[in-house]
Amino acid sequence: MKRLINPRSVVSVKFEGKPLEKDVETNVTTYFILYIGIVFFVTLLLSFDGFAAGDPFTHLSATLACISNVGPGFNMVGPTCSFVGYSAFSKLLLSMVMIAGRLEIFPIIILFSPHTWKRG
């Protein structure tokens, strides 16, 4: 916010009174963007599922419940309902999102990175 008001100012992010290193800021920003991107992309894919009673809020709720490992979502995936209305593809997609949320996003990306599997 300070940079929006005064774009030429030099602002350092502090945690517990100590300035954070630039790589820590970059890693946190990258994680946040990946998290939001995954939620948006999976919600978009679920909207093409054809779930009869599924509205965009239900799909967003299902995605957030899976990636955050928080349990039930809202609406048709709430505490009194289940994921039974989703197709096999959507359930597989949500299962992968749940694994990515449980194991963290960065290790999953590293697992599928070509640099990991090159012999050096």
Number of strands: 2
Largest pleated sheet:
2 strands, antiparallel
Helix count?
A: 6
User: What's the end-to-end separation, in Å?
Assistant: 44 Å
List the helices and strands and how they pair.
Layout: H1 2-5, E1 14-15, E2 18-19, H2 22-47, H3 56-68, H4 88-103, H5 105-111, H6 114-117
Antiparallel strand pairs: 1-2
Structural notes for this entry:
It is a single chain. By secondary structure, this protein is mainly α. It has one domain. Helices cover 58% and strands 3% of the residues. It contains 6 helices and 2 strands, in the order H-E-E-H-H-H-H-H. It has helices at residues 2-5, 22-47, 56-68, 88-103, 105-111, 114-117, and strands at 14-15, 18-19. It has a two-stranded antiparallel sheet with strand order 1-2. Helix 2 crosses helix 3 (56-68), helix 2 packs antiparallel against helix 4 (88-103) and helix 3 (56-68) crosses helix 4. The N and C termini lie far apart (44 Å). The mean pLDDT is 87.
Quick tags:
120 residues, two-stranded antiparallel sheet, single chain
Quick recap:
The chain has 120 residues and is mostly helical.
